[in-house]
Structures are given as structure tokens and as C-alpha cells.
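REVIEWER CHECKLIST
Item 1: Sequence provided? yes
Item 2: Single chain? yes
Item 3: Sequence as submitted:
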Amino acid sequence: MANLVRGSVLISIATVVSAAVGETVAYKQIGAPPSDVTCGWLQAPDPAEVGARSRCTQIPFVTEDGAIDIAFDVPSCGHLAVVPMGIGCAAWNVSLIRPDGSIAVSGVDGVLQRTDSLMPIADESGTRFDVGNPAPGRWTASLSGLPSAARGVLLVRDDAPFELRSTLDTYSLLEGAPVTLKCSLMGIDGGEAQITSCTAQWRGPDGRWRPIDVTQRNGERTVTLTPPAGEHVVQVDVDAIATDSGQLLHRTLLHLVKIESSPPVLSGEVSMESIDEARIDVALGCAAAGPREKLLAGAEVWATGDQGATLCGWIGGMAAVDEHGVHLTLDTRWIAAAGCDGAGVELRAVRLADPKSAITLAKVASVSLGTIEVCRRPVTASGQEAMHMGKPDRGSVDVTPPARGGLGGGHNLMLVHGYCSSGVSWPAGHFSGDVSMYQNSNQNFSHDEFAIDVASFGLQYKSYGIAGHSQGGQAALHMYSFYWTGLDWAMPSPQDGGRIIQNLGVPYYGTALAGDLALLGEIFGAGCGVNWDMTYDGAANWLSYVPGWARAQTWSWTTTFYDGWGYDYCHLGTDLFLWDPEDGVVESFSGELDGGNFRGLKEGWCHIHGMSDPAQVDDSSRNNEINVEAAR
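Item 4: Structure as written out by the authors:
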């Protein structure tokens, strides 16, 4: 415990390093209205609409004698960015040679050469070349002064209007089942190009790269593999010709794919048991339950009404698994609210997923529950909350609300950092009152592991709100959606204006960097590894279980670099992978949670310390708002 004085206010900052060990949190039995389904929030995502995308080229290399020339094609475009990266790359001698053989000299003819930090990719600097209106044709990056057998990668991005896309054929990514990726080159703003060649390779959990055959069918390129359980990176490279100019271009994409094993096998049997006058325990029988003690579940609730089959709501969340099956909780007041009498009740679009990845393990189109007794008592405010969250009365973990005036623990604003944090995040001096600092440095957690770790840290407090940075914000939303924690006892209540979750720079919809930086991580031997939950695919799966009432208690901000004259960015390398506006890690669109309270995009701030503009967590005016508005 450290005491810091800010003006005349005493701030109590508790910093505890925790670890995601045995669970100490109880599951909510969550429900949501039909509108959460019909608007798409709680529907299974279509993999064809998500996937990975890239506008740049990654050319890995190994030198033999400390020097190498790397050629690449540049089509007609308005801007070219080139970044050679590898250990010690700031000391390399680099020449950028035009198609006519002349050297692009910084400060001449729209060429700009700059050296900046590579954090968080590596704790060193790198060099970037920006060229305005580059001559189309074959360019060469000539590198010398490298150690013998040095590894590196040349990043190249032109702004020609073409994007390489890769999408999965399914999100039921299970060991032993084939996985197919469809690859295509998409035109932007009317651009058209034809792929002339496509190659692919994949790296499994053992770290080895293996070639994959590419199939061309009906003008589409597909790759298919049957990988073992674990995380896999598929690299796709395409050469193409721009239709209008006949000029060559190249794109590289890395697509992270996570494979799960040992799924539950449903038997088709279902049993029901009354919990109280409103709730029913629905157990989906399993022929083989699998090794997981909980599953992430979701199901639409339908019943027969005056107009026939009627969507009444959605139920799900973390579902316990035991010898009786997978347990869902149905609050029958959803059926009554839809005007149905309990006849012809069905669960439709039933999904059971791994709680750490949200990858679908089992799904059923329909489960009949027959006719059930429906609770028709008027719904009070507490009853509405129970319909959303269930009640903290099930399971072995005590979730009795603490007495706010009792002894031990406090009512705090918890500051939570993000993925792979060095531990330097929110500045404690910007916050007053009871504040606690969660810290678990250099970690790579799933959202579920992160949420449980934060919740375990929070057991020392009676209640708290959260200010979450980056993945810390996703952990906070995950906690509030699926578990009973100190967030649920925070005051003032949301109805009285308290903000339960306030987030900054959070990739709700994923970031390209979660998979696209796999090559760079290998080369530098740094970082915390790839993270499925923060890919576009992983984020889409996770968010499809997050209901509207949880989204509504989330306030979020995004930032981007100061955009002045010239070629600006937050990070000289990650800029090549992201769409503007972005903060060096997160694109602004990804930080705008549908159903949440978006507080705006602010220019002049980057994701972390060491980038071109100040770290977004150091904005004192925003931090003051977070501090004042936070529920505790």
C-alpha cells in the first residue's frame, strides 16, 4: 500500500500483482430482450463478413554476408511507405532505389526518412521512408551493415486502392475438421485488380512454417488445412495486376486461426427443474460432456403467441457443466413480456462455445421445451435486473452484496491496464479518492482469463468501477456481462448517473495487429505473442454473447495522432497495417462499441508511451472526467 498526496487529497493506491488461478467469481444467468437478437448483437457472426485484411506487403529475409537487396513492385499511387525491421535496424545502412536506378534521397522530391521508436514491438528504434507520388515499377531496398545471417522483414505499403482479404468458412474451429480460408483482392473506391499468383504457408504451435496448396475455383483462391488444437498463423501472398494500368502490385496477409479440441457432445435430451416462481433450470444432456466445467452459451427463446411462433428473448452467459448436462437458466418473464402463455416453448440457435475463445463447440437449431408455466407477476426494477443478470443465489461462490458501511475493503475506482502491459499505464496522480491499480505485467490472457484475474484482485474491495485501457476494457465488459463482481455493487448506480465501466483505446471489434505482427514477434523475439480474442474474428465471436444492458453501462473514448503537414502516424510500423484514424494499435471504428456510450475521437494522443504523440492515458482532462463520473 502506497500513499500519494495530490493537493490536499489523500489517494490510497493499492497495487497487487495477481494471477489467473482458481475461479473466485460466480456466473450470472443472463437474459436479453428480442431487440438484442433482431439488431444482430446476439446472433452468431458470419465469418464471410469478418476475417483478416491487409493493404501492405511483408517480405521476410535472412542475410548471408550482412547485405541484401530486396525488390518489390509499386503500382500508380499517391504514397509509398517502406520500413525495414529487425534487431539493430536503426544502425542499418538503407538505400531506397527507384525503378530508374536513382536513389530516393530524404528531403528531395517528396521523400522523407525518419527514425522513431518501435515500441511496443521492440525496445529500440527503426527507420521509415515515405515517398509521395512514387514512380510505378520495380523498386529496391538495398540493406547493408547487418550482421551475418541476420533476420528481418521489409514492410511496404502503397496506397493503391486494393485490399487483400481472407475469411474463414466456419467458426466451428475444431481439431480434426478441415478449415478453409477464402482469399480475394478487394477493390476500394472502384479499384479493380486480377490476382496472377497466390502462395500460402502456415505456422502451427510448434513454430514450424509449412507450405499449403492454393486452389483456384471460379476465380477464387482458397487454402484448406486440418490443423491440431492450438494457435496457427496462415500467411497468404498474392501478386496482381491493376486492371486500369496493367501495373504489378503485391499484398501479404497473416490470418490467425485458433483451433479447439474435446467439444461436448449433446445427447438430444433435455431436463428442466424449477428454481423459483420465475426461473427454470434447463439442462441440455450430454453424451460426452468434455473437460470444461463451464461453457459460453447462447440461445434464442421462442414460444407460441397470437401471431404464431414468437421471439421472446435470449438467454446465455457462462453455463455450468456437470453430470446432468449444460445448465441454462430461463426466466419465464421473458415469455410473458412477449405476450405468450408458455405453450410451444423452444430454444433456437443454441450455441455452446469455449469460454476462453468463444469458438463454437456445439450448436443445435432447436430444442423443444414443450409447455411451461409462466410467471406473470408485474416486473419491478429488481425483477428487471434479475431478468438481465439472474440472481446471485446459485453456485458455491458467495456473492452476497457487501455492506457499504462495513469494515474491510473500500469502494474504489480500479485502473486496469491492457494486453502485454509493461506496468506503466494510467497515471495514479490524475485520480483522487479511493483508487486501486490493477497490475499484471507482460501477460497474454484471453478476455475470460483477464476478467477472472481482475475480479480476483477486486475481492479485497467491497465495490468498484473500472477505467480500462485497451484489452483491460474488454476484460471489464466481460466481467460485467458474465460474472458477479464488485462492479455490481458500485455506487452511484447507473440509474443515478454512475459510470460502471469507462474505457479508452479498446479494440472491441479487434485489431489487425493481433495476428499481423506474428512475423515481427518472431524476428525480434519480443512481445507476448498473438491473441485470438483481439483479432477481428475472435472479437466478433466474443461480442456476439454480450447483451445490450452490459454495453449500455460502458463509456468509451478513442484517439489518433496529430494529423498535420506530411505523413503522420503514431507508430512508424503499425501504421502500415491499420486504417486511419488509429492510435498505433486500435482503429477508431473498433473502439466505438455498438450499444455503448461513445465519448468521441480526440486527436494528438497515441495508444502507449513512446509513440509519436503522448500516451492517451496521460490526458488529464479526460482522466478528470473519468474520476468524477466513476461509480465506486
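Item 5: Key structural point noted by reviewer: The domain at 2-25+397-629 is CATH 3.40.50 (Rossmann fold).
Item 6: Recommendation: ____
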